[in-house]
Amino acid sequence: MSPTIVLEVETRFEEEERLDEFQKGVKHLCERGITKVPRKYILPALERPILTKKDDATNFKLPVIDFDQLQGPNRVHALKSLSKACEEYGFFQLINHGIACQSIVDMIEAGRKFFELSFEERSKYMSKDLRAPVRYGTSFNQNKDRVFCWRDFLKLDCHPLSDVLPYWPSSPTELRQAAVNYSEKTRFLYLMIVEAILESLGLVETTKDSDENDSDDHIKEFRDGSQLLVVNCYPSCPEPDLTLGIPPHSDYGFLTLLLQDEVKGLQIQHETRWVTVEPVPNSFVINVGDHLEIFSNGRYKSVLHRVLVNSLNSRISIASLHSLPFESMIRPSPKLINDANPRRYKDTDFASFIEYIASHEHRSKNFLESRRLT
Ligand code: OGA
Ligand code: NI
């Protein structure tokens, strides 16, 4: 065999041997020291991000919703901004949300410390079961993805807390307390936003000085809804133009409350461009998920987003994904369907979603597309 062929065979052999290693995650890969992105993470040329020094959408600003205004005398005005944001962007920044800074810092720090544990410790929580109450993993769907993405994650099921808590990692020691506190606070905030969203869709009357019971009836099903906390870890990447932290996707739930640290990376698709969502200290990025798009019969948009990685900094984000109870059927609200606005989506439930993601490689919004009535 010629020396070149020997070299090629060896390289391929090494790469294949490493395929199993890739299942252990990006953090593990980086800890072993790499200077190039392995082939497994290299996207086809057309799917790679174009990283320019200067953002081509420097002027892009996500709509800002002030939670204080929403809960105060300016509610009607704030509701208008909220519905405009959900219709046109599918995303908004929430400021003055009322969650103590300390709860947020504690959650980010606990998440960061989890990823600083040894691989042996972290790997105790690896599971192929998409319904496991705790799941440490990598990429988007590591059982299916042909190209891996540059992300590790820890997913904690949060509801009902007393059932799931015993499964949560016991190390780092502060994780459970921080995540309990954070999940309770975000759950409360989510319910307040849902009330506002129902109101903005015209499904409940203005609540502040009218009969509170009216909105209570509507919100009941949401109160017992599912919640999943996802700690995303994006290690710094030697060749960030070849890969992505998360490929373009939409979130499947009702709403996602996302906390970004100070490192940027999140991009959303807006008017056919990819635009960066600048981190705003002390705010949440909130986005419409597939279930809300279905529930609103297409009025509110579940928008594609993706995550870029960078060569200088690693990045942590915490996503709190909320929806109706797992056993609930998601359907367009009957009050939003009429002759002028016919039903646009089929009924859907979590079981069909889980089945879908377990059997398909996740590509863009294809789950939602599969629910669309033509
Ligand atoms: C997600 C997501 C964005 C981010 O977890 O679904 O889109 O910035 N995260 O980490
Ligand atoms: Ni997302």
UniProtKB/TrEMBL annotation:
The keyword Cytoplasm applies. One of its GO terms (molecular function) is metal ion binding. It is found in: Cytoplasm; Nucleus. It comes from the Eukaryota. Residues 224-324 form the Fe2OG dioxygenase domain. InterPro entries: DIOX_N, IPNS-like_FE2OG_OXY, IPNS-like_sf, Oxoglu/Fe-dep_dioxygenase_dom, Plant_2OG-oxidoreductases. Gene3D superfamilies: B-lactam Antibiotic, Isopenicillin N Synthase, Chain. One of its GO terms (cellular component) is cytoplasm. Keywords: Cytoplasm, Iron, Metal-binding, Nucleus, Oxidoreductase, Vitamin C. Belongs to the iron/ascorbate-dependent oxidoreductase family. Involved in the regulation of shoot development and salicylic acid (SA) homeostasis. This is Fe2OG dioxygenase domain-containing protein. It comes from Salix brachista. The lineage of its organism: Eukaryota, Viridiplantae, Streptophyta, Embryophyta, Tracheophyta.
